[in-house]
Amino acid sequence: MEKLRFGLVLIVLCLSTSLVKGGDPILTFEWKVTYGTISPLGVPQQVILINDKFPGPIINGTSNNNIIVNVFNQLDEPFLFTWNGIQQRKNSWQEGTLGTNCPIPPGSNFTYHFQVKDQIGSFFYYPTTALHRAAGGYGGISVHSRALIPIPFDINPADEFFVLVSDWYTKSHTQLRKFLDSGRSMGRPDGIIINGKGGKGDGKDEPMFSMTPGKTYRYRFCNAGMKDSINVRIQGHTMKLVEMEGSHVVQNMYDSLDIHLGQCVSVLVTADKDPKDYLLVASTRFTKEPHTATSIIRYTNGNGPASPELPNAPIGWAWSLNQFRSFRWNLTASAARPNPQGSYHYGQINITRTIKLVNTAGTVDGKLRYAINGVSHVNPTTPIKLVEYYGVEDKIFKYDLMKDEYEPPAGKAEEKITLAPNVVKVTYRNFVEIIFENHEKSVQSFHLAGYSFFAVAIEPGKWTPEKRKNYNLLDAVSRNTIQVYPNSWAAIMTTLDNAGLWNLRSNSVERQYLGQQLYFSALSPKRDLKDEYNMPDNDVLCGIIKDMPLPKPYSV
């Protein structure tokens, strides 16, 4: 068996040499995806493990590394991973969503092969099939700057810790999926977990992190949850924000940080307090009954338990909005490249297209659905990316069912929701403005795959073109997720310079599963390898293209 696995990896390496950039190191991983029984909230339940661990292994790499992950699916269902925040330059074949990839069949393996090209920062991976995300299967991704790029820290951290915070259900992922398939909501989560553990908060938990007095440490936080924004804070300590989803930021100090679904940040924390135990606290935001979890940070040679008194969480979303407005791009720092981040003057580029997206909830045939501009996405049995590559779009879906402008019905009128693949054609390399408008009573969070964008504004009310005068056109943070507060709007700007098929999705698992997502098709008109890679030779084929002859490959 070991010889067979080695052979499979060797074959994939040989087939994938066109993706390996000369001189850039290769990091190789082999993951076994299985079920196991653990008790994150004190109730035994089935959880997805990677190499017998939850959370899964941390991918710890450096800018431009080539990452090879050989995934053995030992579940009883098809399975996929996505790499949230990794841009997959020219390579949406590795994106790992149901719109780009056929799932890995049970008992089979598939090798992902991608490069973290011109990226640094904190990201995470998670399952995209069925409702597997509700069973875990997620883990962190750290991408460090290359040695020749100076890091904008006064002090090099003595160590770094990855902290995956998540809301959690004690019901199984299969039960939650049955709820959604029957037209019901998943309901409220049952608690919060930190790196897979609930934390009793009774002083008997084992320490999760350790700090030496006088040293400074980097904590990478990601909200890998399903429904709730989460606030994080450390008892008695302030946090210096240094990075957000791949961008160095102006280094302000915070007592606590709101981290919305799908978002990642990293902070520096100095062990400058009395040597004893302290609690890292995570609690849900904008919920009637907040859930809280704690983990212990222990000073080496410390003496004494953590105080049972927890630091208070902020109240209301106005506080959160003000915190968003305090985030600024560090214009003088270099990220993955030697040139400073601020050398890219996004505020001086002309907008070529404005797309306004309105999220709504409704029913179709008596069942709950979520939509964007009146379209609730349905995944076809053949992934959209393969359909486009084989040129059989007319057999599977229609482009541009969703319009760039949308106004939901006024008052209590029922919205007409269309169930269909939601695929929007966009022009490769155009500079676009995307408006998210949230008419609902809960905070929303959206992720755009394949790109980073400038989060130029969030404001209450409805968006109009006159609101552009309030945009931050100088130092908005370049990132890949954006939150939208109740009855508010958010604006982002980006250049669609990454050819491929890219998912824009709600970070809420329930909303995403029930249709609140779409795909941008940014195809290069030249079908040129300079713009996009060919379909990998090891790609899993399914649906109507499974037995079709291969199309003519892209050429240089």
Automatic annotation (TrEMBL):
**Matches recorded under SUPFAM superfamilies:** Cupredoxins
Q: Which InterPro entries match?
A: Cu-oxidase-like_N, Cu-oxidase_2nd, Cu-oxidase_C, Cu-oxidase_fam, Cupredoxin
Plastocyanin-like domain: residues covered: 33-146, 160-301, 413-524
- Which of UniProt's keywords are assigned here? Glycoprotein, Signal
Q: Which Pfam families does its entry note?
A: Cu-oxidase, Cu-oxidase_2, Cu-oxidase_3
Q: Which residues form the signal peptide?
A: 1-22
The entry sums up its family as follows: Belongs to the multicopper oxidase family.
The protein's matches in PANTHER family, at most eight in alphabetical order, are given as:
L-ASCORBATE OXIDASE HOMOLOG, MULTI-COPPER OXIDASE
Question: Could you tell me what this protein is called?
Answer: L-ascorbate oxidase homolog
Upper classification of the organism? Eukaryota, Viridiplantae, Streptophyta, Embryophyta, Tracheophyta
